[in-house]
């Protein structure tokens, strides 16, 4: 064995503590053998591997040896990677239409991103999904710690899967995960520059309906509501002048601003924030404390809580109750090779994790990363009011990039699927795209269009 091979073996032995993996050929709820390769497992990070991060890995259904490798970060913080697998970009989903309260049936998603890439879906930060800690202290996390843990996870995963080290690597994420994407990218950049092994074939990153800077993204909601004819010109102009354009984290002593926003609150109280065309579940008014609305309309801070359990069939949100039932079934957990006794109750999104949101803006990370020759895709559903497309358009302009391809429609099957604009700075390239008619998250509402988008982008073709 040569030195390179011996060095790799030593690294693998060094990092392999706390790691386990299993190939899953069948799943409860699906009839027959899975038509895609699914692997699940744990990888230990942190002091003495006290944190055990669970993952789902699905090989590309095209050409695993040459297709890109994506690490997918779901939102929350605290939403499981299973959300990405069954509700977003993964190869299967639940048969919601025929769900009768028993173990839900699994059906295939013809528009899975695994048609174009190998994808790792991770339960992160610790306390999310099936991830757990061996100590009570291990359950504490934050933006900075989570980014470092995810980087360590990825290093160990690649050492355990050396056949994918040379594949083009992208970090991708949605919603709150959008903030962590450039932070993990920065960890990879630093690791590669420090010559840490393995050297990752990092090419760029993808952000969908993501949070980048709360002051920018959340502040975009009032202008977005005006753009979409949800509030009148008069209400918008009054709020704009009274609040000096600052609606999120505003001055609590500004009574005129509060009064102006109260009129807007009444207009938006029965609008579904994540997809303005969808009904409110059970005819309930929106919970305005969700998605950080509280910082505009009074208290608290939160970006996600993506799914609010309900039994109403007309609402996307009721799907989480199905995933909760499925993932808590002992037969399912055995099929997924879950370590017994490591969690009490699985939740699609665990809002009870111990997590400090200690990075308010990811813009400084983007500003450093644009000095490198990375490729970036930023996309938003244009009917998402929780993370409206106006936010990314503003922070992208702050990066002072040059427009390389002017705003234009992009098509799928001859129909407008959205609008796109491309920016460049030296070898750095950023593509922005809206997805017409999509909400939060875009691929959940427009799967065919989003697969076409990401397939073209990964192939370095124009949208």
TrEMBL record:
<keyword id="KW-0645">Protease</keyword>
<dbReference type="GO" id="GO:0004185">
    <property type="term" value="F:serine-type carboxypeptidase activity"/>
</dbReference>
<keyword id="KW-0378">Hydrolase</keyword>
<dbReference type="InterPro" id="IPR029058">
    <property type="entry name" value="AB_hydrolase_fold"/>
</dbReference>
<dbReference type="GO" id="GO:0016747">
    <property type="term" value="F:acyltransferase activity, transferring groups other than amino-acyl groups"/>
</dbReference>
<dbReference type="GO" id="GO:0006508">
    <property type="term" value="P:proteolysis"/>
</dbReference>
<dbReference type="GO" id="GO:0005576">
    <property type="term" value="C:extracellular region"/>
</dbReference>
<protein>
    <recommendedName>
        <fullName>Carboxypeptidase</fullName>
        <ecNumber>3.4.16.-</ecNumber>
    </recommendedName>
</protein>
<keyword id="KW-0121">Carboxypeptidase</keyword>
<comment type="similarity">
    <text>Belongs to the peptidase S10 family.</text>
</comment>
<keyword id="KW-0964">Secreted</keyword>
<feature type="signal peptide">
    <location>
        <begin position="1"/>
        <end position="21"/>
    </location>
</feature>
<dbReference type="InterPro" id="IPR018202">
    <property type="entry name" value="Ser_caboxypep_ser_AS"/>
</dbReference>
<dbReference type="Pfam" id="PF00450">
    <property type="entry name" value="Peptidase_S10"/>
</dbReference>
<keyword id="KW-0732">Signal</keyword>
<dbReference type="InterPro" id="IPR001563">
    <property type="entry name" value="Peptidase_S10"/>
</dbReference>
<dbReference type="GO" id="GO:0019748">
    <property type="term" value="P:secondary metabolic process"/>
</dbReference>
């Amino acid at each position: 064995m040569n030195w390179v091979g011996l060095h790799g073996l030593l690294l693998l032995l060094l990092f392999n503590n706390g790691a386990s993996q299993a190939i899953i050929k069948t799943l409860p709820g699906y009839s027959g053998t899975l038509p895609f390769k699914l692997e699940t497992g744990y990888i230990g990070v942190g002091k003495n591997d006290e944190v055990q991060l669970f993952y789902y890995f699905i090989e590309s259904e095209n050409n695993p040896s040459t297709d890109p490798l994506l690490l997918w970060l779901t939102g929350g913080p605290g939403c499981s990677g299973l959300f990405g697998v069954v509700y977003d970009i993964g190869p299967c989903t639940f048969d919601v239409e025929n769900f009768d309260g028993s173990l839900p049936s699994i059906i295939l998603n013809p528009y899975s991103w695994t048609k174009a890439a190998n994808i790792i879906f991770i339960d992160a930060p610790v306390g999310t999904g099936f991830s757990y800690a061996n100590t009570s202290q291990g359950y504490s996390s934050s933006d900075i710690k989570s980014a470092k843990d995810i980087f360590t996870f990825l290093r160990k995963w690649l050492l355990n899967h050396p056949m994918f080290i040379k594949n083009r690597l992208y970090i991708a994420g949605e919603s709150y995960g959008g903030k962590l994407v450039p932070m993990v990218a920065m960890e990879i950049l630093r690791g590669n520059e420090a010559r840490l092994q393995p050297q990752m074939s990092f090419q760029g990153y993808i952000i969908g309906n993501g949070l980048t800077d709360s002051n920018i993204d959340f502040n975009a909601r009032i202008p977005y509501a005006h753009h979409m004819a949800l509030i009148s010109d008069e209400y918008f102009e009054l709020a704009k002048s009274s609040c000096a354009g600052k609606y999120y984290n505003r001055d609590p002593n500004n009574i005129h601003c509060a009064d102006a926003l109260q009129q807007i609150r009444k207009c938006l109280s029965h609008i579904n924030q994540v997809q303005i065309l969808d009904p409110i579940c059970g005819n309930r008014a929106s919970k305005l404390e969700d998605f950080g609305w509280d910082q505009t309309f009074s208290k608290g801070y939160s970006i996600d809580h993506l799914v609010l359990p309900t039994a109403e069939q007309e609402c996307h949100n009721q799907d989480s109750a199905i995933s909760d039932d499925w993932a808590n079934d002992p037969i399912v957990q055995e099929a997924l090779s879950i370590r017994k006794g490591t969690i009490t109750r699985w939740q699609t999104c665990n809002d009870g994790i111990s997590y400090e949101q200690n990075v308010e803006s990811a813009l400084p990370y983007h500003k450093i990363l644009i000095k490198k020759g990375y490729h970036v895709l930023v996309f938003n559903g244009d009917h998402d009011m929780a993370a409206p497309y106006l936010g990314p358009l503003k922070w992208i302009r702050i990066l002072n990039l040059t427009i390389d391809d002017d705003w234009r429609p992009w098509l799928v099957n001859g129909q407008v699927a959205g609008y796109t604009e491309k920016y460049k700075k030296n070898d750095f390239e950023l593509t922005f795209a809206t997805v017409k008619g999509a909400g939060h998250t875009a691929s959940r509402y427009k799967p065919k269009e989003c697969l076409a988008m990401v397939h073209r982008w990964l192939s370095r073709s124009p949208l």
